[in-house]
Design a protein that fits this description.
2 domains, single chain, 6 helices
Length: 248
């Protein structure tokens, strides 16, 4: 088993030892503090017309990496893992060979549906930022591919859950919705197939209150609340709450 890092001149074989160093996490602890750690490399991927994973992945000079998942990813919130010092030095060496300083900062695109990617490189107090979609240099795309591969590896440890700034006790992926009297709930959820909305149950036998669930990996809960609140078939909507909070 071998893994290849990018380089502006060739593919570079790291070998099995480095792969083990990257993926090993048996002795890690999620209490690592990254607030004062210096960044080495960071990639942020924005939205697209579809379900592109939206996240930021960062490699720090202390030998750790952080993954902050926003949408369309199986890791929501902040996750960390150990990269290792030897692996970190190999990454730094490849970044120096790639010479990112030679490239322009923005590569403009005429394709609005594509995902925008920003790569930031930090060296000796300086920062090089490269943003674009298609048309970026090959070496920049190889860095993206490397970080994408790292993001998909196992061994990430959850450090912080997503911060949606929701009311206390709110269930992030459940909404209590009062529909207008002539609205069919089964037809209603079909409008929100992209968010994977489903009927959980009817809350009142004679009323129009329904409990719906949705996939918080596909839309932020606060955005979903606002989205449904603007629906003309809805009279009211709020987050479902845990039993403890409902009893207060």
């Amino acid at each position: 088993m071998k893994e290849y890092l990018w380089t502006s001149r060739r593919w570079y074989c790291l070998g099995v030892i480095s792969v083990i160093a990257l993926s090993s996490c048996t002795s890690l602890r999620s209490g690592v503090n990254l607030d004062k750690a210096d960044k080495v490399l960071e990639m942020s991927k924005g939205p697209c017309f579809g379900s592109c994973p939206i996240f930021t992945i960062t490699i720090y000079d202390n030998g750790w990496a952080a993954y902050n998942g926003k949408l369309y990813t199986d890791k929501l919130g902040l996750h960390v893992k150990k990269v290792g010092r030897s692996r970190l030095e190999e990454i730094k060496r490849e970044l120096r060979l790639a010479n990112l300083w030679q490239y322009q900062n923005i590569y403009r695109s005429s394709l609005p549906d594509l995902q925008s990617v920003t790569i930031n490189y930090y060296e000796n107090g300086r920062t090089k930022s490269i943003t674009g979609k298609e048309g970026r240099p090959v070496s920049v795309q190889k860095i993206e591919a490397f970080l994408d591969k790292m993001a998909k590896t196992t061994g990430w440890i959850e450090k912080e859950k997503p911060d949606y700034n929701l009311p206390a006790g709110a269930v992030p992926n459940e909404l209590i919705v009062k529909l207008k009297g002539n609205v069919n709930a089964e037809a209603f959820v079909l409008k929100y197939m992209k968010q994977n909305m489903q009927i959980v149950k009817r809350l009142s036998p004679t009323g129009d209150y329904w409990l719906f669930s949705f996939d918080e990996k596909k839309i932020r809960p606060d955005e979903m609340l606002s989205f449904v609140r603007r629906d003309r078939e809805v009279l009211s909507v709020e987050f479902n709450k845990t039993v403890e909070m409902r009893d207060r």
